Amino acid sequence: MTVKIAKLLLATVLLAGCASTNLQPVTSGTYQPLPEEKRINRACEAEQRRLTDSEMIYANPKLSAYLNAVAMKVLPGEARNKVAIEIRVINNPYCNAFAYPNAKVYVHTGILARMENEAQLATLLGHEMAHVTHRHLLRERRSIRNKAAGLASFKATLGSVPLVGELSSALGELGTMASISGYSKELETEADNVGLEWMVAAGYDPRESPKLFEHLMAEMEEEDQDEPFFFGSHPKLADRQANYQRFIAERGYPQGGTVNRAIYEKAVAPAIYETARLDLKAGRYAKAEKGIQRYLQIDPRSGRAHYLLGEVYRQRNHRDDIQNAIKHLLRASKLDRQHAATYRSIGIVYMSQKDKKAARQAFRSYLKFAPQAMDREFILEYIRQLE
Fold first, then answer.
1. Which of 27, 35, 51, 250 is nearest to 168 (CA)?
2. Considering the chain, what is the average pLDDT of its residues?
3. Domains in the chain: boundaries
4. N or C: fewer beta carbons within 10 Å in the chain?
5. The pLDDT value given to residue 43
6. Is residue 334 classed exposed, middle or buried when 0-12, 13-18 and 19+ CB atoms within 10 A define those classes?
7. Residue 303, phi then psi, degrees to nearest 5
8. Rounded to a whole number, what is the largest CA-CA distance in the chain?
9. Are the CB atoms for 315 and 289 separated by under 8 Å?
């Protein structure tokens, strides 16, 4: 069963009910957490421990500090006093973000790598934090009684998707509901509405909000496929884009505001690199190439980035790819002279080109910088053959 078919089946299940329960947001003066919410929050904590234990959390203190600073700028003061928002990063190349009702918001490296500026980040975080403050998961659970069966079926299908199965197995019912299916159209529209109000009040340019979804849709169209999460679904992205365009037109927001492209790119550069590495690992060469080229615009003297781009070309091996692989791998060897894997790749490329002398030299450099390499005996055999 394909991911698209599974999504259709899940949508059929979800149509069994879509009316949300009327619950006041946490910012209202009458808010008191219900016993049901306390139980949900305990379940959230258990799921989050599984996520942490699975080693999928991307630990980068500077990146985390930046994301949380933007979140605090977007979240209004009355909400900050009621919920302890924390932004965490998941090491996964797919475009996704989701929020647990206990105020932990998870953002994939993949969506960080594909957004363009801080105003778009503010749009994304505002939307996710609105799910928390407006108690959307509880409202959704109350309105759709048989959702769990559909989610279980969809989770089973996700297990076979590269780089998704591990995350799917770590997410429980609550995480699956938040990250994969999203909420009813009514609740998603409310999150769009509230999040946009917050980001504009924080001084960001509202014109960047629809661009976030335009960019994600364009990227999916390039590869002619949906990605298996909520922010990778073309129809849902189109709904988000239409919501923001309509809200902006209706409210007549002033032109301009904070965008912060350079600040954003510097802060999320590690996530851009990591996403490109994971895209390469999954054989998503076009996305890996695009991502690492963007990273090189931020840090053109990164030897590891030139190595990664060289690996994209070496492994893809289309027309002109080998020459491009040699170019970037040699550049990598000059910028980072002790990165052993670079020399291994150079040796493999030269061996395929029948340049025995250059291949031997590269393989010897590899063993010099990685004397305990697990493939040492294979490399020594290559050297013997080349001699």
1. 51
2. 86
3. 3-251
4. C
5. 87
6. exposed
7. -65, -40
8. 81
9. no
